[in-house]
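Worked example

This section walks through a single chain of length 207. The input is the sequence exactly as stored; nothing has been trimmed or padded.
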Amino acid sequence: MRPEKSGVGRPAGRSRAEITEAAVRVADRDGLAGVSMRHVAAELGTGAGSLYRYVETRDDLLDLMADHVYAEYDLPSPSGDWLSDLVDMGLQAREIYRRHPWLAELVLTRPVVGPNGVDVTEHFLAVLADHSAPDGDKLVALAMLNAIVAAAARSEASPVDALRSARYVAHVAAQGKHPHLAALSGKPEIGDPLPEALKRILSGLLG
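Given that input, the structure is written out below as C-alpha cells.
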C-alpha cells in the first residue's frame, strides 16, 4: 500500500479515507466491477481527476478498500484456546464477507496489505505464540483459513449457481450410475458445517 501523498494543493473536504469509504459503498452496491475512479468520483460528487491526487491507481484503491474493511475484525487478547480463537476469526471473516461480498474475491487473489491487515495477521500469530508449530506452518494455516472462508463466502453469495449445481447432482444421482453420490445427496445437511470444518483443517495443519 502506497503512503498517502502530501495534502499541499488539495481541495478542501477531501481525503483518502473519504475516497476509500465511497469506494466501499460502490463495491457493496455494484460489486468490484462497479469500482472505477469515475464511479467513485460520482459517488462523491466530484470529477475522477481529483481522485488521483490521493490514489494513483485502481489497484491502490482496491488495497485501501480491503484494508479499510479489515478494521471490522474484533481482535481480543488471546484466550489460551488457540483453536477456538482461530475458528472465531474464521467466523468473523465470514460475517465481514457477507457484509462486503466483493472482499472474498480480493482475498483470494491478493494479500490484504495495510495497517488493519497487518493487525489481523499479528493477532493470528499472537494466538499461536505458544504453539510449537514451525513459523512456516503457522503462515500456511493463516493462508488456508483465509482461502477456505473466502471460498465458502463466494459460494454462499452465489445461491443461483449453488442451486443449479445441486439440481444437476441430484439429476445425475437419480440415474443410478453413481450409488455413493446418490447416498450422499439424499442426506440432509445438519447445522453450519464451517466451524467443524475449520477445526479439522486447523488441527490437521497445526496439530
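What to look for: The CA atoms of residues 43 and 80 lie 45 Å apart.
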